[in-house]
Design goal:
Bound molecules: (3S)-3,7-diaminoheptanoic acid, zinc ion
Number of strands: 31
Strand order of the largest sheet: 6-5-9-3-2-12-15-14
Oligomer: single chain
Radius of gyration: 28 Å
CATH class of one domain: Mainly Beta
Helix content: 40-55%
CATH superfamily of one domain: tricorn interacting facor f3 domain
CATH architecture of one domain: Sandwich
Largest sheet: 8 strands, mixed
Structural class: alpha+beta
CATH topology of one domain: Immunoglobulin-like
Shape: globular
Distance between the termini: 16 Å
Number of helices: 28
Strand content: 15-25%
Amino acid sequence: PQPVRLADYRPPAYLIDEVFLDFALEPSATRVKARLSVRRNGEHAEPLILDGEGLTTLSVAIDGAPHAYDESPEHLTLAGLPATFTLETEVEIDPAANTALMGLYISGGRFCTQCEAEGFRRITWFLDRPDVLARYTVRMEADRSFQRLLANGNLIETGELPGGRHYAVWNDPFPKPAYLFALVAGELDELADQFVTMTGRTIDLRVYVDPGMAPRAAYAMDSLKRAMKWDEEAFGREYDLDLFMIVAVRDFNFGAMENKGLNIFNSALLLADAETATDVDYERIESVVAHEYFHNWTGDRITCRDWFQLCLKEGLTVFRDQSFSADMRGEAVQRIKDVKALRARQFPEDAGPLAHPVRPSSYIKIDNFYTATIYEKGSEVIRMLKTLLGAQAFRAGMDLYFERHDGEATTVEAFIQCFADASGRDLTDFFGWYEQAGTPTVTVGQRWDAEAGTLELSLSQTTAPTPGQSAKTALPLPFAFGLLDEDGTALRETEVAVLDGAELTIVVDGLDRRPILSPLRGFSAPVNLVSDIAPKDRYVLLAADADLFNRWEAGQGLARDLILARAAGRPDEVAEERYAEAVGRALADQAAEPAFKALILALPTEPDLAMAMSPADPAAIHEARDALRARLAVHLGDDLRRLHTGLADGGPFSPDAASAGRRALRNAVLTLLAVDGHAENVDLAIRHFEIAANMTDAIGGLDALIELGGASAETAIAAFHKRWKAEPLVLDKWFAAQARDASDEALGRILALTAHPDFDGRTPNRLRALVSTFANLNPARFHDPSGDGYRFVADQIIATDAVNPMTAARLVETLGGWRRYTPQLGALMKAQLERIVAVEGLSKNVFELASKALA
Ligand code: B3K
Ligand code: ZN
């Protein structure tokens, strides 16, 4: 397959101004008539080349008369065209057979669509590229059993038809690219509400869900209203249509989609109540509802010129949803979680064979570039921009962007230009963050001159080569830091220095005591930090840094070093005791929030540790990490059990951040205790599970019992299944809990789960619950020395690729880091990638990632 290159971008030869679509919906034979008002773009004699995939063409006419055309599997070519004309086509498609879940498909007996990035071409012949913006009118008719007929924009007309059919007509006044088109038809319950905008307009809000599920949409609706208000306050953005709809579907390739006025969600990211959803689910629902809503301005009103510009809408919108969540749930806790996610997903990507810049310059399948780099690093880049310019200039740049580019399909250059113009700053070098892959390493050295009372900080940065980019340049990055004394008293408040070359020296003078450096506060840049800060100073930071992120970071660094020393066969028991005591003090801190303490209590994850060990040995890491957990569990045992009791919550469930924080801490305590199979801990876990009054506690208990193993684990697994077998979203959690089981004998059971009657690999949620959870969150068993974990994941990739290439491809990255592991493991991983690449008829999606992972 040939890659597509940014350098080859050309404006479209034709533009489409108006689209009229007429759907005659039938599950296995849907007819789609399209009437397009087309206009030649400039003076030329080029043919019109339309995109299509899997369409059965029934007719093609220009200005009402049949027209000759050339059809290939992916294109329809028309020549000899006037400067403006009406193109009419009719095609037939088969939604019931659409297992790839791109284009028009059926989920739970309802029609729904997914068009981003290139799904619209599976619906009708079109210029399926984001720089062709058109106004859409959509008529659809279906059997009356498909009760609701929904599309983008405003409802214009509905009516009955003979033969038990009915129809609806929708019009979207805002020009949009085809990837934002959506249609839904089927039986759905409705949750209705309203929002009054800052200019006093009343917007109708609708959330559509499976019959009987409307109460579970309440939190999504509440999140939506808070997001609408927040976007007005934080960015001055008001909603534009009079109606905003969200529909939940069970079968979806990812989280959710920002179709104009008609967002479509994976039901896992929309439905919640205390009994069936965890606090983590609530948190994700809040952030994803906000994310998709925020796209209305950053994505829909202003969209991408081409798919290389994906971060223009995604990085920016992640930044917006993270800022929203920080305001809803607390800045420090949110920042820690965001950085954890960045390190868990983006850093390994940036360090491996699939590393790519935030704005890539070539791809084979754009579906493969919805990555942590585009999303999460893309957000970090915006965050740095805000830090470098200051909040006010940042907002001025955003305002200018909305004003200058509303209604356009634009580029990252144009976006950055708005900030340069609004701030008067030259951002040429900053643009390097979009073009250079790899995580910079920033090294900070200190020289303390007691006599002069000066601290000299020397900063330097380097970035290792990444595939296709051997030479790297230094990128401008904000380095926020503060100084404390040995008692934890602030000596200097946060200051932001800019490392805008390979090196920088900062001199702080007027210090009357030895300062302790609190570096890279709030994780002010997405880098790996290497510092010479001594453990005793890191204990001061853990106990007293005014920057809560760095308190957490100091604890993580201490734990990481202890675990890695153990994994290397050099355990330091005295230092481990000291660490346990410091954690005990952090837990006793009355001023700290429970949500923060829960984060302090969790040791660095195994994949995180693997990134810091070369070559990585997952078995040694797992064992060493558990040894430190055991030290904490034993050393702090009584305190932990007391804390667990003290945090028990008898009142009615509330999903608010403070209540969720208390549950998070209580479950983090249980997680820690589960490493120690002391009878008291087993009893505690059994009780925790049995009396759980919400899903957060039920899963916390189940996880702990599975780790403790034995008969109580079996009982719990069976009881959970019996209780929840009729609830697909909860059953997903049941699969996931078992997929996380890291015990030595777990692998056989996990592999056997694919044969469970409730397992269906064609439902992406179920597949991810078992296979992604296993590959991403169970490193000990995924990297099982037998190689069976790798083989299992490869089997699932190959089987899934035949039905749903996009979802299959998402699993490939788990094998991509093979060079970072011990030679034995690396060879086993590589062998599975080779097996995948050799499969006949492999999709472009999987081929691109697997072959790049091997290159
Ligand atoms: N824009 C969609 C992602 C589409 C993924 C297509 N492979 C959801 C989001 O990021 O908001
Ligand atoms: Zn998005």
